[in-house]
Amino acid sequence: MAALAGAPRRSTPGRGEVRLWLRLLTCTTTIEAEIRRRLRREFGVTLPRFDVMAALDRAPDGLTLSEVSKRMMVSNGNLTGLVERLVASGHVNRRPSPTDRRAQVISLTETGRSDFRVMAAAHEGWIAAMLADLPDPRIAELTDLLGRAKSSARKVATDD
Amino acid sequence: MAALAGAPRRSTPGRGEVRLWLRLLTCTTTIEAEIRRRLRREFGVTLPRFDVMAALDRAPDGLTLSEVSKRMMVSNGNLTGLVERLVASGHVNRRPSPTDRRAQVISLTETGRSDFRVMAAAHEGWIAAMLADLPDPRIAELTDLLGRAKSSARKVATDD
DNA sequence: AGCCGATGTTTGAAGCTTAAAGTAAAGCCG
DNA sequence: CGGCTTTACTTTAAGCTTCAAACATCGGCT
Lengths: 160, 160
Description:
homodimer; mainly alpha; Arc Repressor Mutant, subunit A; 3-stranded antiparallel sheet; 3 strands; DNA-binding
């Protein structure tokens, strides 16, 4: 969370951007914490597991671990353990990739898929409720602006 | 989710909100990952520690653990360990609260403050660079919209 | 064929994070 | 005062997360 560092200088360049960043962060954190809490309380599931299942739900033929980790923007090492637990709980199954002996393809089990559908519906409702104060045009506007912010950030983040 | 049989409503209610949420999330994650990476690489510091220091930098008289955990929106238990490590590394010191024997007041050490100032300046520059494509009016607009989103979310998140 | 840099995955260490349970002190109220 | 609720903090267990290092395989190149 973050930091508004200091010195009460007047128009430091970058000030407005930092302010925006802090707001972005608290906004995300607030929503995310609530979703995490409800997923746990109502379905006994953690957010990261939900996220894996969400990625798989959109890919009926399964995905490799790398593909999932790219979509979720988490490290590969992270995914190893996550998937291990999802396999153990019967929500996901893994099989070796037919075309690449290094890779594994994972997909939702029957149970996994039907559990996910129930959770996803609730999830959608929670989001809608939390953003209920924003009329549709604002939603669209915000979505657009965030898209620009994202691609601006990505430019810098990728070149290293 | 949805798209069952029947009356094609304008669009699934809640859809646009979910789309917005996902974009908010990837936007935040992208920026946050980059900041985390740079803090580690250039200063050997983790983001949570930076955040604690940022909170303390703005409070010259120190803060109790609870106050910090409220600002950072993390659990109290989390902060216990975080502060422990910051004390160990000489960035923060703790003393008992003069008015409440349960509480501890923590504040930046000299080292902590001067280290933080250096990092904060770099941090501000990174943020500004990542958001460089957004002209000032867009920044303001986005900040405003996020404020609305936040308070909308907070309404739902707090009542439970 | 054989090398070699890139890719897919796992492992390990360190640290972050939460929820839940526990201890201690404060504050209220009859 | 004595009892009750709240608040401050710590502890524990489980899980998440990253980075870095280790492997195995792949694909291109010579």
